[in-house]
Every structure is written in C-alpha cells, then in structure tokens.
Write a structure and sequence with these properties.
This is Oxygen-dependent protoporphyrinogen oxidase. This protein is an alpha+beta fold and 611 residues long. It has a domain at 16-79 and 293-369 and 533-580: 3-Layer(bba) Sandwich (FAD/NAD(P)-binding domain). Helix content is 33%, strand content 19%. The chain is built from 19 helices and 23 strands. A seven-stranded mixed sheet has the order 7-6-16-17-20-15-21. It has a five-stranded parallel sheet with strand order 10-2-1-14-22. A three-stranded antiparallel sheet has the order 3-4-19, with no helix packed on it. Strand 3 (83-88) and strand 4 form a beta hairpin. The longest helix is centred in the middle third of the chain and has 16 residues, at 203-218. Bound molecules: ligand LM7OVKF4. The ligand C=Cc1c2[nH]c(c1C)Cc1[nH]c(c(CCC(=O)O)c1C)Cc1[nH]c(c(C)c1CCC(=O)O)Cc1[nH]c(c(C)c1C=C)C2 binds at residues 98-101, 103, 215-217, 219, 287, 376, 378, 393-394, 396, 411-414, 479, 523, 563-564, 566.
C-alpha cells in the first residue's frame, strides 16, 4: 500500500461477460452451412498469469479456429507481473512488484517476438552491454559491497580486486585446479548445486558468491537446489569429459551440444521474419523493460486476445475440479460459477503444481509430486535524492554474510534507477536515427547512438522513460524472505516489511532519508524450487498426467523448465506446438531427454551478424 493511499492498476481486469463467445448452437449452425471445417479445438487454459495469456496467444496464432477459455480465480489477469504507476511530488514513478527486466537471449527470443507481434517494441527501454546495470554487479560480503570482476575494468583492476577482497578467497585456485579434480561416482543421480560446485571449485566460493547469485534468481538455498536441473551442461560435462573445463574445451572445439528440442527451437527462431530495426536495436542489448513496466506484456497479450474474438476470459472463476470425460475424449472442468461444468478437448494448466494437484480429486494418488516454492517480499522505495547507491544493477547477499550484517535475512537489493533512465540522462543531440540502415551506419562510424547506454526502438521520437519526473531521484527494491522464510507460520506485514527494508538500507548503503513513496508486496509461493531429485519428480508427473488424462491435460509455467518469464513463455509455446501438431502430450515429455545434437562451432571472426 502506498503511503498516500493511491493504488493504480496497470494490468487489465476483464469481466467474464465481456468476451463471451456465441452459444454453441451458433457454431452448429455455421457448421451446417459452411464449407469450411468446423472449429476443431476447444481448449481451456487454467490460470490468467503470463503463462496462461501466452498459451492462449500461441493457440490463437497457431490454430485460428480454436475456441479458448481462460479460467482465472482472481479478478485480475497478469499474475506475478504487476507494474504500478505511483504519484510523487513532481510526477509519477513506476514500481514493479515482481519481475522487472527481460533478457533477449535464448528463451528471450520469444519475448522479443511478442514485442514485435504485439507492436510494443516502441514502448521498450533497452539497457546496453556498456550500461552500469550490465557491468556493475555487487555482492555484499562480509560488510561492504564488492563489485564483481568484468572484462571492461581491465586486468589490473580485476586482479587487484581478486587479491584484495575476502569474497574471492580460494576462487582463483579453485578455478585453476577444477580440471584436475576427480569426477563423481557414476552412481550419483543428482546433488545440490552447493555440493557440486564445492567439489569442483571450493566451498568458500559457493558460500560467498554462488549462494548470492542463487538468491538473485531463485531466492533459494544453494544447498537444496538441484545441479542436474539447474546446471545440466556442467553436470554432464563432469560425467563425460571429467571436468567442467574439459567439457567447455570440447564445446569450443567441436561445437556446443544441445538437446534436439533446443536445436529445433533455435532453428524456428532463426527462421522467423525479424524486424531489422528491432534486431539492430537489440544487438548490444542485455536486458529490456517497458516505459510502463513489464505489465505492458500482459496488456498487449490481453488486448490481442480480446480482439481475436476466439477467447473467453472467465475471471473471478476458480476451478474446483478437473476429471477425464467418460468417453475419454476430453476433460470436464467444474468451476465455482454456480458449479457449472464444461467439457474441453484439451486443457492447459498454467497453475502451480500444487494448485493443479488440488484440482485432481482422486485420493488414491497425488497427480504431481510436491515441488516446494518460496515466498518473496519486495519493498519498492523511491527517494528524492539521486544517486544514493553506486552505479549498477544492485547487489545480492550471499548465505555467508553473517546474521549481524543481515539480520533482516534479505536476499538482495535492486537499483531500479539503473534500468530506467531519467530526462537528465538523455542527450537529445544524438536523437536523429530513423531506420536500421542509419543505425548501422552510425554504429560503424563509431558514433554513440545508444545515448547513455540505453537504446530505443521508437527513434526518432522522444525516448521512453519509466519515471515521469522533472529530476531523477533514487528507486530501489529490497528483496526479503525466499528460503529464509521456509516453514514460517506467518510473514511480516506491510509495516514490518517497510521497517526491515529501511533498516537494511541504512546499514548497507547509509540511507537515512525517508522514502517519498513506497510499496510493500508479498508474493506468496512465487518461485518454485527445483530441489535435488526435481527431474525425477517431473518424470513421475509426466507418467501420472499421461495415465490419468490420456495426453489431454498439459502443463506449462515456472515449475518445469526455468523460473523466469521467458521460460514461462517457452513452456507455453512448446505446449501449443504439441497441440497444433495433433499430438497428445503432457508438456513434460522432454524431461530427461538424451537426444543431443552438436551445433556448429563458432570460430573467431566467422560469426555472422544475424546468428
Ligand atoms: C521477485 C523476485 C525475483 C527473484 N528472482 C526472480 C524474481 C521474479 C526471477 C529471476 N531473476 C533473475 C532471473 C534470471 C533470468 C532472467 O530472466 O533475467 C530470474 C529467473 C535475474 C535477476 N535478479 C534480479 C534482477 C533485476 C534480475 C534480472 C536482470 C538482470 O540479471 O540484469 C534481482 C533479484 N531478484 C531476486 C532477488 C533476491 C534479487 C536481488 C538483487 C529474486
């Protein structure tokens, strides 16, 4: 809640009645008189977060005749993506409760593609490789911020930091000797990330650095998370080449080994008709966001789905149960709206594994084995004074940082201003590029076109800025909880969350000023934890889903193949590919696949611009 009591909803909330399709009798009539084949897919999507919206989007794109119904228990769509514009004295600032930036690489090709297709690339802000956000990443250990080495700092600065800072103790030696360490016993099926990297590199490195990085991504405990699920390549490299370094050398010489599914995905993305200006804008982009935050993605998808005429939104409609239809040709959904029942040819669950298991009312078995998740509290704060922290992305706090230095049990702090430039940061004299050719020419002649390390696609219009203020202040987000709160019967309330964030910022960054506005968000069970044995649990889930639902119930979301927004898009995309190819499936068939292909090695100087 904001101090001044304002709350502004960015995500669209769609009344269930707004988009209802014609009654089924109309389809029957159409079928009788039309030579066109009847709509062949009647699909329900459970959950209206980014995964559910993306699933519906890909369904409409791939199967224009499909009838799609989205069930969402709450009155708003968008899930964890939640961007809010908040009034301050001289304008408004944007607060993100959940994820705040996206990376364009790997699964990120799907979010870039969505930007292009939904025509929202012009609303994005592209942080460049050279930006402080990309170069300056900090870890708090033991009692101060340590900047992680980066090639752009030069050899002397990096070596001096490696020798001076206790955080790096043992890391150089551990890295150099990794090649010579014994590989694991072949009987070991999985182990924790902490245990694996302790064996390969050293325990101090895990406690002081890796555990912090894992806070920044999974808000999780490095001693619980599965290396097999989160680092499949080093895990295989150790088994096959004897060491991580050995595997890397082999990949360099012979080309990277990826699963056949990954290779097919990369090929599809390569063949897509990319907008040349967007491609040029993304060339040196490491992360992007939107002027109105990542909620822009939700809004763009919702707008498209509403306009398609094929999608019905059932908001405020919790699903009570699912069961196989008696003829085994579909799935019956019972929802809370007057206990109504509907039968669908396919159902895609974009719910958490626990929520889905709950809907399968069969006491004899749990549909999905338990996959734990953690709760994260994010506290957004905006201060009037600018530059209250060093330039950079923010910092993570590793597990090795003592309780005295982190009694709040915080996971890290994001410097949001680093991703949202202000009017002061923009040099309008450089603002004249109008198309991809001009952009390329300017780059080739060494001209600075990415003003102050940001790029915009909407050239030559006014650059996009998140915070609409006359003079930039400081915007940060404190992340609390995660695995530290596992098993807690209750979480801090709003007042306590704010107090924790302020005391942390005072101790770590000497910030004593009162924030002008703030917002406390509790994201319950928002990040699934891929703990040791995760792969086996997913295989069991696949078997159960197949047996119970005959390949008509598929799953997508953050609990199977990556916890990021881009990973959710990927799982939605894969599930729809399966449906559109007429295959029955679960969305988990790829888990544990041993089908690998080697990509061609990239020799220095041979990489083409578009690869
Ligand atoms: C709500 C808190 C979240 C924390 N992690 C995630 C969320 C949503 C998920 C996540 N965070 C990152 C990734 C990696 C891949 C990616 O999509 O970028 C994932 C899946 C990295 C990341 N962590 C933070 C930021 C701003 C980013 C993205 C941008 C970047 O790397 O430049 C900050 C951060 N997130 C969390 C913590 C504790 C934290 C601390 C600084 C938890």
């Amino acid at each position: 809640m904001l101090r001044n009591g304002h709350r502004l909803r960015i995500a669209l909330s769609v009344p269930s009645s707004a988009l209802s399709l014609p009654p089924s009798s109309v389809f029957t009539r159409l079928r009788a008189y039309s030579t066109e084949p009847a709509p062949c897919h009647n699909v329900a999507v459970l959950g209206g977060g980014i995964t559910g919206l993306a699933t519906a989007y890909y369904l409409v794109k791939e199967l224009p005749r499909a009838k799609v119904t989205i069930y969402e228990a709450s009155d708003r769509i968008g899930g964890w993506l939640s961007s809010k514009r908040v009034p301050v004295k001289d304008g408004t600032v944007l607060f993100e409760a959940g994820p705040r930036t996206l990376r364009p690489s790997s699964n990120g090709a799907l979010s870039v593609r969505l930007m292009q297709e939904l025509d929202i690339a012009k609303d994005a802000i592209y942080a460049q490789r050279t930006s402080p956000a990309a170069r300056n990443r900090y870890v708090y250990y033991p009692d101060h911020l340590v900047r992680m080495p980066h090639p752009s700092f030069g050899l002397i600065e990096n070596i001096s930091s490696l020798l001076r800072e206790p955080i790096f103790e043992g890391s150089v030696w551990g890295g150099l000797t990794e090649f010579f360490k014994d590989a694991r016993e072949s009987s070991v099926q999985d182990e924790s990330v902490g245990s694996f990297f302790s064996r390969r590199i050293g325990k101090t490195v895990v406690d002081r650095i890796f555990s912090g990085i894992f806070h920044g991504i999974y808000a999780g405990d490095v001693w619980q998370l599965s290396v097999k699920s989160l680092f499949p390549t080093p895990w295989r490299d150790e088994a096959q080449a004897g060491s991580i370094l050995g595997g890397m050398m082999k990949s360099r010489a012979e080309g990277l080994e990826v699963t056949a599914r990954e290779a097919a995905y990369l090929q599809t993305m390569k063949e897509f008709q990319w907008d040349p200006l967007l491609k040029a804008t993304l060339k040196d982009t490491v992360a992007f966001t939107f002027k109105d935050g990542l909620g822009t993605l939700n809004d763009g998808l919702a707008r498209y789905l509403m306009g398609s005429g094929n999608v019905e939104f059932k908001t405020s409609t919790p699903v009570l149960s699912i069961k196989m239809a008696e003829d085994k040709g579909g799935i019956v959904i019972t929802s809370a709206k007057s206990e109504e029942q509907e039968t669908y040819g396919h159902v895609v669950s974009a719910l958490s594994s626990e929520q889905l298991s709950f809907l399968h009312k069969d006491d004899s078995m749990k549909l999905i084995p338990s996959i734990p998740s953690v709760t994260v509290m994010t506290v957004n704060l905006y201060y009037r004074t600018p530059d209250m922290h060093p330039p950079g992305f923010g910092y993570v706090i590793p597990q090795a940082t003592s309780f005295e230095k982190n009694p709040e049990r915080a996971l890290g702090v994001v410097f949001d201003t680093a991703y949202s430039p202000s009017p002061d940061d923009v040099d309008m004299n450089n603002w004249h590029i109008q198309n991809a050719d001009q952009l390329k020419d300017a780059r080739d002649s060494g001209q600075m076109v990415n003003v102050n390390d940001f790029a915009w696609y909407n050239l030559p219009n006014k650059p996009n800025l998140q915070d609409d203020v006359k003079q930039r202040g400081t915007k940060v987000t404190v992340m609390l909880g995660g695995h530290y709160w596992t098993g807690w019967p209750a979480f801090p309330d709003e007042k306590e969350g704010l107090a924790l964030a302020k005391s942390l910022l005072e101790r770590h960054l000497a910030i004593k000023e009162e924030p002008e506005v703030w917002q406390v968000n509790i994201q319950k069970d928002c990040i699934p934890q891929y703990t040791v044995g995760h792969e086996q649990r997913l295989k069991t889930a696949h078997t159960n889903l197949k047996r119970q639902y005959n390949g008509k119930l598929r799953v997508a979301g953050s609990w199977m193949a990556g916890v990021g927004v881009n990973d959710c898009l990927r799982s939605a995309w894969e599930v729809v590919q399966g449906i559109s190819r007429g295959r029955d499936g679960t969305g988990l068939e790829h888990i544990g696949s041993n089908e690998y292909v080697r990509l061609k090695p990239i020799r220095p100087g041979t990489k083409k611009e578009d690869e």
